[in-house]
Amino acid sequence: SLGAGWFFRFIPQDAYAIHGLLDQDAYDRLIKANAQA
Fold first, then answer.
1. Residue 2 near residue 34, CB atoms below 8 Å
2. CA dist list (Å): 22 to 11, 13, 18
3. 3-state helix/strand/coil string of 2-14
4. Which superkingdom is the protein from (predicted)?
C-alpha cells in the first residue's frame, strides 16, 4: 500500500486536476493509473 504519500508527489504537475480543469473521467483515470503504478 502506497498510502496517502504517493498523491503528494503529483501535486506540482497535476494541480490543474485538483482545481477541476481536468474532467472527472480523466481525473479518475489519472488516480487509477497512479494507484496501480
1. no
2. 14, 12, 8
3. CCCHHHHCCHHHH
4. Bacteria
| Per-residue pLDDT tens digits of the chain, which is 37 residues long | 556 666 656 555 566 656 666 677 877 888 888 888 6
* Crossing angle of the two packed helices 24-36 and 11-18, in degrees rounded to 10: 150
What grid cell was written down for 15?
Answer: 494541480
Q: Which residues make Cβ contacts (< 8 Å) with residue 6, sequence separation at least 6?
A: 34, 35, 37
Q: Grid coordinates standing for 34?
A: 497512479
- Overall size of the chain counted in residues: 37
